[in-house]
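Risk register update: the risk of archive-format incompatibility is retired. Evidence:
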Amino acid sequence: MLAADVADNENIGRLGAEFILGRSPLGNKLKVLTHCNTGALATAGHGTALGIIRSLNNSMSSLDHVYFTETRPYNQGARLTAYELLVEEIPATLVCDSAVSALLRSDPSIRAIVVGADRVARNGDTANKIGTYQLAITAKFHGRDFIVAAPTTSIDLDLDSGAGIVIEERSQDEVLATEGFSAESVANGTELKRAAVRVAPVGVAAWNPSFDVTPADLITAVVTEKGVFVKVDGAKEFDLLRSLSN
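Archived output:
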């Protein structure tokens, strides 16, 4: 099972990288942006969206730079994706979630935003880490590809659309406070010490949905281990049942 899962991830990486390169100027190295953590720490090995980035960098030598979001409020990007990119020695820059639109406007060489998925409906609506929806909106506005990378096991063919996906709401404490290693313990190279820091004043309430649903209309392609699925010309939704049946 482990070997099969890694092989599926590697296929997603290869197919996604080929798709992005096929839509990019020939001979030019490209930049991409990703959200949350979709690498070896979140999968069996190679990763999904981060697997595409790995393939662009390692197998195809076509990657210039990766931007990745901090992914508030739990900072999976700043904590986990940052670590994986450092270990892989992939050139990368961390950006605030709220800075992505400004980044896309300032750097037209960013070709695509690549994300993972927790659940994909039959029509392509995709539930993923909170903040994904707004990334899809800004990608559409700025004319960039928005690519979902997910194994076929994440596609729920019994689900007509994202309207049927129930969104978990997590503790407001994750927004009102943050955790990390103390700067002093990191600088001194001593035993790392974790600390929680209150950000908002006492008495403030917070809304903390864990996921959001990105409408299929905003998604350029869904990359799976079995192929890259796109919408037929003029369609606003995918037909993943038909795609997976072919």
